[in-house]
Fold each of these.
Amino acid sequence: MTLGRFVVCWLIAAAALVLEGCAVAPGSTRGDPLESMNRAVFSFNETIDAEVLKPAATSYQIIVPEFVRTSIENFFNNFNDGWSAINQLLQAKPAAALEMGLKFGVNTVFGFGGFVDVAGAGIERRSEDFGQTLGRWGLGPGPYLVLPLLGPSTLRDTVSLAADWKAIPEAFVERGGERWALATVHVISVRAGLLSATRALDEIALDKYSLIRDGYLARRRNQIYDGNPPDEPEADDSSDATEAAPPK
Amino acid sequence: MFRRVLLGLVLCAAQAFAQAEVAPDAFVMQLSSEIIDAVKSDQQIQSGDVARIRVLVDNKIVPNVNLQRMVVKSVGPQWRTATPDQQKRLTEEFKTYLINTYSGALTQVKDQSIKLRPVRTGANPNEVVIGTDVVGKGDPIQLDYRLEKAGDTWKIFDFNVLGLWATDSFRSQFARDLSAGGIDALIDRLTEKNKAIAGSKG
């Protein structure tokens, strides 16, 4: 079963569940009607992370010298930048598209195929993916989904993966061993980059699942509106204080 | 004796200066810069002494926070069902938890700087949202503050990281313990969590 078909099957299953019970299920939170299923997948992911991913990423961080890790990170980020430029065009953001396109071009040509971030801080990175593009076009996120191994997502973002995956280095490599090797390096590189952040998260979270979900959904909304999301009505402070209107 | 007079004069002068009104964005920039500079320049903090960060946060940030409003917002409607003693304990544990959370974030500070985003004034002159970006090696991290007017200066009653408001996140996380065992369950959970955090890094 190819990855693509796997995603589609998962989508159909999720869609079936969504259509079955769209109303907020008792005990679940708004925006997360599939909470009990999501929590189960989350547990599974946490186990895999603790047993496989985190140890691998930790070893990677210890064994591989920093400049090599940075080069690998740059390589994958560079592909991302190219895809961001395309998405910015699709979102009618020509100035941003030009900048990201330039960053991609400079790094690919002068940065040995992306391994060196020549453009660096000179051109600020503004990442865009197909999920953000769909959001920009007005498609709502749909229910929150925790994907096996891949982690937090939404129905819209999961569907966009099909497009996003066409633009990663793995897509340009022969199917089979090579592709899986590249994907493994990709995953471990990303995981290693998140090690200290996840350590901090583990420490402070009272309910890790909720924190990751709320963080993911807020972040996506933020990314789609490029840091200026329309203000949502604030929840009640207390019975005494009258809630002040949020600033425009 | 002469020293005491001098000190008195200096304090009077300082008081006079303190009467000047502070703009909300200036307030945020000053506080942020103070904290970041303190973290960057302190050798012990840079080598991982989290206890020192907690002291820093307690001394510099907590006085500028409307803790009462934050804890009420984070607990939600069930706050009203708590007894005064429960509220007191809950506020104490929440304060410790907040310090631990913020300190954890500050351990990530190495060479970042703060950039202010354009201020958007709203309908209410006594409340404002100030947006900043923490700029470093990676992507800039958005860090916003909700401020309420407090005399000549401002107090923070909520903060937002990468789009997520802290009180929203707390409310969502606290909900599980609240529905399982009410206010006492939440207090116990927070106490336990604070002990665990203190124990792990010391």
Amino acid sequence: MLLEISNLTKHFGGLTAVSGVDLKVDPGEMVGLIGPNGAGKTTVFNLITGFIKPTKGEVKFKGKNIVGQKPHVIANKGIGRTFQLNPLFADFTVLQNVAASFYLHPKSSLISAFLNLPGYQRNEDYINKKAKEILDLLGLTTHQDELAKNLPQGYQKMLGIARALATRPTLLLLDEPLGGMSVGEIEFTMEIIQKIRESGVTILLVEHNMQIMDIVDRIYVISFGHRIATGTIEELRKNNEVIEAYFGAQIIDT
Amino acid sequence: MTEQKGFPTIAKTQAVIYLAVIVVLAILPIFIKSPYTYHIFILTFVYIIATSSLRTLAISGQVSMAHAGFMSIGAYTSAVLARYLGWSPWLSMPVGALATMLVAVLVGFPFSRVRAIYFSMVSLFFGIGILSINSIFGKYTGHINGMIGIPPLFVGSRMQYYFFFLGLMVFCLIILWRFETCRIGICLKAIDQSHEVAASVGISETKFRVLAMGVSCFVVGLAGAAYAHYNMVISYSSFNLIASIDMLVYMLIGGIGSFAGPIIGTAVLFIIPELFRQLKEYTPFLYAGILLLVVFVMPNGLVGLMDQIRDLVKKEK
């Protein structure tokens, strides 16, 4: 078990954003998390990565409870993530975005960085090489010297994935990776996600676009903070509660 | 440009310009006759150090309003050690700088929890508060009248001080330059642009903000300590809020976006009042006017203006 969430609950004042959610991800799996708007999907991501502290519940990563740890510590443990609204290092170029994200591996000591020692230079050369490899894989090479804020929306999303890959995650959390993309970009991105998975990265993703469900192994459905179903896409197609949550009750009646 | 690097290190042309300026400053004393001219140059060097150290925090989005206050820690620590305990100024100066750094790191932890304007506010209160600590020890620091009889660095001429401060400035600027261009600076800039993304790739915001506070305040403390032993008299008025705001103005006018910004801004604003010395009481208005001009016409400061002109010339061709 790579990631094990049990009874995860978060109250914002009187509002219950997430309530008693259980979720398990095995190594090498690709798992989808779906649900209507406001169901609490992004909150679950923020709870896993330490951006929000849960009111109750446990998040175990590689068997250890990581609740209450700071986001950068959790990133250090091997959980990479992208963001739904996709903030960027806006004034860095595309290449700089990725290079700046190579903070964890390889890590230079502050002193060697400050004094520009050979070990630091080697690390930086390696980072530059690797960053370019990532950009190459994600089809961003031609844009590498553009400022991130000047990129079209789809490329910006891609850059978010590139940055997360730079942390060499064991588990990658993708928050709406297809959001705001054109049809061509969606196909390309889905190919990329599959490639990332084949390279051995476990993936948990939130998505509204149902095309992605063709490539995930399992799906969790949440609605109003509760987990209402889990299973493969075939199993969920027959699940009335899921259809009701997504399309309203009338569809089932007719 | 054959090889594209992620983050540019120092460009050859830039290095040549910096070296040329240093060489010119080093041979300039041949032409300087009056002690007053030396005095102006020395003050400019001190403020270039202080303003540049302010920028080291600014690259992570934190604008300190307490830098004159931090400067006073270095100045008073070194002055008290040398005056009352008989330490050599050469030893008390680095100790003063380290004391400033220690204070900065200690307050850095709570201060780093707030960002941007909120940081400016807490640093503003700190900058005012730290001066009242001086008045608690008024017996030694001379209350409001200032502290006199601080042992000098040299007994000789102002020329010695000129070369000492020139060397100190180059030393401090090299420290700040390395700090900013290596990965530490990259992380600080990343935190400025999005602290969430920075955290998601494993960059600890607190660690880097505190580190920047430490280095920035070490440098400004060193400048303050050296200034104390040069002036031999220090008083509150050198380190009050006005002094902090002056630094801020120098930085904004020079251009916050580049390393040369605070250097050029400080140099220009020290030279202009000297050219119009009869009008000295109007300098605050002059500053205000220039600042308004910067805000509306050249948001990237004097350095940005040069870039704009360069772009225009390129287009003409």
